Amino acid sequence: MKNLLLTTALLAATALPAVAQQYTPDPNATPGGMITITYKDDVATLDPAIGYDWQNWSMIKSLFDGLMDYVPGTTELRPGLAESYEISEDGTVFTFTLRDGVTFHNGREMTAEDVKYSLDRVTTPETQSPGAGFFASIAGFDAISSGEADTLSGVEVVDPRTIKISLSRPDATFLHVMALNFASIVPQEAVAEHGTDFGKHPVGTGAFKLDEWTIGQRLVFAKNEDYWRDGVPYLDGLTFEVGQEPIVALLRLQQGEVDVPGDGIPPAKFQEVMGDPAQAERVVEGGQLHTGYITLNVGIEPLDKLPVREAINMAINKERITQIINGRAVPATQPLPPTMPGYTEGFEGFAFDIEGAKAKLAEAGLEEGFSTELYVMNTDPNPRIAQAIQQDLKAIGVDVEIRSLAQANVIEAGGAGEAPMIWSGGMAWIADFPDPSNFYGPILGCAGAGEGGWNWSKFCDESIDAMATAADSMTDPSAPERLEMWSDTYMKVMEQAPWVPVFNEQRYTMKSERMGGDDALYVDPVSIPVNYDYVYVTE
Question: Which of 328, 353, 445, 461 has most Cβ atoms within 10 angstroms of its Cβ?
């Protein structure tokens, strides 16, 4: 991670063109074959401008490409649809040269006009993209997001293979942003044909293309025979079966019917799996930049009162909740996970203190407590965690009604601002890229608080936003003063308590005996949960 950040800073300082990194095919890979992946919940959309959940993130990664990409299984940046790029000495102008001959799934060649259209589309309010805020540093963002303009003034088509992007300020994270799904390149004619249904009829340049989608049952991806990267993908296709309970999926994996259980190892079966050497051998463990949290909607009474939010923070027994997931996590004290640059060492957060929590409610004039709702994804262990939260809050006089729903319904309620509280489990934040800014903009910043955004607490403090902007307006991502600014930013957030940070979780998944490829591909930090472009079958 450190090397990546230093390299990015060096490029910004010298304006040298980036060299296209080629992928060397795995000599052990056998081309061909289909694999089966299961999920409990259905897929809401495959539109890269909108999709932002556990199921569709890796699917979208395999259907679409952006200008930038990552070395498989790592957070090391490499060029994607851009063959190379140059950065001006002041870090505000990025000039990308596109690869020649890349075609969309519909057969048309991709050009710089498609890049401009895609960036305009993801940032216009009509799209309601939860990722729009990532692009705030591009010149003209404020005008397009306010409706004053319908195009980004900072994105210029130089010629069919050259796109120039000018920023309103230096942005230490910009190359990472261009590798996000939200920055995927889409063909305007396909969006025009399908309109809001483009997410059901996706057309990209990715390693796979959608072949079949039976709503509520399965999605089938077929290999893109014209993919621009030589040698990949190895597989002929992917079958995603939805509506599969995780425990049933695990049983089917044991019987050889499933290759990857997308929802992971059911917590109720974790000890059993790890205690069986044959099954434990197929478990893949990986670290992740993750925080599980409870959002407190500051726009809904009485959560609009700071003492109430502080009381809820003090009432949650985080140690007990980590035991519900077999101790596969550590209690969290702040939004950033401990391994993220900018984490505030020594900050203890809100201590578990029932009497102190009751005193805070009394301070807010709520000695008798109040009633509220907690939304939760209906996949185990999340309902059980919600029940623990319910019990904790009952102890201070807060009556909580649990709304256990499918993931898409929880996301919809959160984006609309209808949910007083949300337990983020199953949707908890895993970094899109290894930089502290990623835990702020989309889930705590003002840009993410709009309709459809992932800032479900609807927290917006313009002074804290200004601190975040200042931190990102530095050329060197790893500068100590920048990381200190981010630490200060999150400490200011904690003073307002829009969240209850609960735990930082380790990641576990399983694969069938026939699956090949480096283990890192199955806990890929970018193509969450699995990088399907580079895995293969051995039989």
Answer: 445
